[in-house]
Design a protein that fits this description.
120 residues; mainly alpha
Length: 120
């Protein structure tokens, strides 16, 4: 399932990174790639919800879970915002997604296994 969701995400990211300095914004091709990924995610979410409905879950339960996940990061804004960690060496806040502290270079400890939607 992860490979289906991500598609050619790795290659697209590498291509976009090399082209970033040569243009001012995303091309039409880039936007179509993003649209394709959103379409795949929409299909996956619809399939997951239909399975959950078959198991007896309700829309009210879904809305409650969405609200709880939205508020888990401390900001009820309709999205999940990754939180920074604290560097174990210098106690600085390390931005979410960074492999090492931007101030002292200490590697960030891996706290969890990657989830199925990481990088999407």
């Amino acid at each position: 399932m992860i490979g289906y969701v991500l598609g050619e995400h790795g290659r697209q990211s590498a291509r976009l990174a090399t082209q970033a300095g040569s243009r001012s914004g995303p091309s039409t091709e880039d936007l179509f790639g993003i649209e394709d990924r959103v379409d795949r995610l929409t299909l996956i979410v619809a399939a997951m919800w239909s399975l959950l409905e078959e198991q007896g879950l309700t829309e009210e339960q879904l809305h409650e879970r969405i609200r709880a996940l939205d508020e888990a990061d401390g900001v009820p804004d309709g999205k999940m915002t990754p939180q920074p960690t604290t560097c174990r060496s210098c106690a600085a806040k390390v931005g979410a997604g960074l492999a090492a502290c931007q101030f002292c270079g200490t590697a960030v400890a891996a706290t969890a296994q990657p989830g199925p939607f990481d990088g999407v």
